[in-house]
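Supplementary Methods, section 5.1.

A reviewer requested that the exact input to the structure prediction be made available. We therefore reproduce it here, unchanged from the version used in the analyses.
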Amino acid sequence: MKKLLFVLLVMLCLVGLTACTDLQTPDQGEPNQDNNAIDAADDFANLASGSYAQMIKNQHYYIEYTLYTGSSNTITVKEAKDGANVDTMGIAMSYPYRSILLDNTLYNFSEPDKTYTTHPISSDQEMTVEDSIDYSGMVFVTSGNDAIPGFDAAEGQSYDYDQYQMTAQTATEEVAVEMRFYLKGGELYVIYTNIGDNEEIWVVDVLTDEIPAGMLEIPAGYSNIGAI
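The structure derived from this sequence is encoded token-by-token as follows.
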């Protein structure tokens, strides 16, 4: 049962740990088309959250955050991303997890017994909506100041934010993906993402383009117990 729970957890965490809660969705603006729009050639250099957004768009970053669930069961995440390769580890419900997607193979690690399983990912395998997000098409929409939707821990306090938009593909249609970077004292505080009816709130501790040594690598000291 624990191994089944472990596999379910890491599969969730691999793509960003979707928190499906009944939260109020903010109005989504249209991409800014006036003279204040950010030229694609400038990337997001003139925006307060620009350096952070550029890392997400480039899909090359290291992030540490807590997934806000609205309960006492916090989920802490450390994730390194380099293109299609991703290394995710953390604690969920007091259970440590780690998974690495490396060169089209998924490695799931069990910390207690120092083992891991492998699962090849084929090119024709059905993707989740989160997997299908087109980050290369990420565009700036608007800036504002507002409370973070569904984030009760902020007690209704408002924060400056920059809002971006991209698209993802469901089984039947293309959907808009809204991402807001909320700032506190000029530093990144929360990343809020809305994909259809699914919302995520990441309380960010670290976001950098420097990937720590040892991540995106199979760790030493673990035994391969085969494919699943």
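DSSP finds two helices and twelve strands in the chain. These observations are discussed further in the main text.
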